[in-house]
Design brief:
With about 600 residues, the chain is α/β, with parallel strands linked by helices. Helix content is about 45%, strand content about 20%. The strands form five sheets. The protein has a six-stranded mixed beta sheet, with helices on both faces. The protein has a six-stranded mixed beta sheet with strand order 14-17-18-12-19-20, sandwiched between helices. α4 runs antiparallel to α5 (about 125-135) and α18 runs antiparallel to α19 (about 565-595). The longest helix is centred in the C-terminal third of the chain and has 34 residues, at about 525-560. The protein is globular and about 80 Å long.
Amino acid sequence: MGVLLSAKDVSVEFPAKKVFSQVTLGVNGGDRIGIVGRNGDGKTTLLRVLAGGYAPDGGEVIPKGSPTIGVLGQADALDSRGTVRHAVVGEAPEYTWAADRKLRETVRALISDIPWEALVGELSGGQRRRVDLARLLIQDWDILMLDEPTNHLDMRAIAWLAGHLKDRWQKNAGALLVITHDRWFLDEVALSMWEVHDGVVESFEGGFSAYVQQRVERDRIAQVTEERRQNMMRKELAWLSRGARARATKPKFHLKAARELVANDPPLRDTLELRRAAITRLGKQVFELVGVTVRYGDRTVLDGIDWLVGPGDRFGILGENGTGKTTLLHILSGQLSPTAGRVKTGRTVKAVLLSQQLAELEDVAGDRVREVLGRHKTRLTVDGKSVTTAKLLERLGFAREHLQSFVRDLSGGQKRRLQLLLTLADEPNVLILDEPGNDMDTDMLAVMEDLLDTWPGTLLLVSHDRHLTERITDSQFALLDGRLRHLPGGVDEYLDILAQRAEAQGAAQDAAQAEEQAAQGRPALSGGEAYQAKKQIAAAERRMAALERQREALMRDMDAADPSDYLALGELQDRLQDTQARLTKEEDAWMELSERLDL
């Protein structure tokens, strides 16, 4: 498709900061671009400029032709007075959207738990976000721009979204630009990366893993260059200090050789050594749950859980939204008592819960960062070494001037990092983490993982971030129907279980529909007839999808054709009408088959 959009010498400047300075870049057909950078460096501003939602202070954004652009922003523009159905499909009649396979799959994957006739204004922020994402994905766009699309999605929905975006366009067609801190997701969908930093946008080939390798090499070269410059200046200064006679002799430079990039992966955790250290700090027992049950009214959230957590265990807890993960963490931290069963906690356990809501910072919101740090130890042991809290704060992305900031004025990511530092400063021997990666950019996530990777204690993590979960935990468990299930196969096993359960649920629904048809006097299809009907429906959906792609390609050809070439335009119009007629025929056949199955 060639160039879809280009930006030339774009500059953006806010009152207190220059965001971009003469940035030039292009978006081509087939591009799948992941965008990363520190929080506040301009990732969202870049998308807004490219989408035409923000006028740059200098330069211009030039679309090629009239590409359609779909944008998922950080805030939605949904009508709070409208229904979910209206937000997603508008005024389209049911027979139109019910025949759309793409729409049905999107609704099932993202908003199947939200009533179709619910008012948007009564939804939670996460539900509104998912409705807005579904609304966007069911439409056809030449360019799709997504700002943090994985927020409020569980692992299953994130995996579905990655697959959808990979299959959405044919090769070299369409373009995707996505901002996300989810590194697994970036590796799945991105074919190239843009890093936004210091007023520029730097391009890298490949997904997130390839980007990290290339960035390490870039930083190594920059460091070697700076070392050479400093060496030259020191020698120049020494040479000049010797006077005119010395300047008559040509100096000899002996530059230090550049360090080679370490090609191997970082060393793995020494799990055995960490477990030994944890036993020293914790003894032999941490948590023992026996028959733990939690009920809210008629709803059972946790159902007779038996679980043993020992010293040095590093467990990830997986589950869809609303399955009780946070409830389980509150039970372990002592903030909630079970309805039935008991929790036995080791005598030496000092557990700290890092919550999603940043509640730990509420009492110090009116204090300055330096005042808060002054109430804790000045030195901490990290990775077996003693470091100052100020040095650790710097490692977590705080500059010296941030020490004077009030806690309430910090960004969400800064608060999250300060919360982590204060948690470590309390020197717990059990860390309970509930979505610790929220509001963090990819660099800070890597720093946090580095800190937690060698932390000598028991660690329990709830997170939808697959990369984070697999990096800092050794075993995973899933909360399913209120019970806790060990996952020897990790996240892949968990996703397989959910897929099998969804398939079984669909079969049960088919059986229930057959019984209902029989009760109403309508002849129910036999198992073989239903199987054949489903095969025919699947084949019709494939043909409909192919015809839709043909129609879109013909419409693009008509847009690009010479308006004075009436013969070519007439031929394209005839082909378009024929394609539309065939598509209508397939849709009619699909509707007839669906009615037989009562879909």
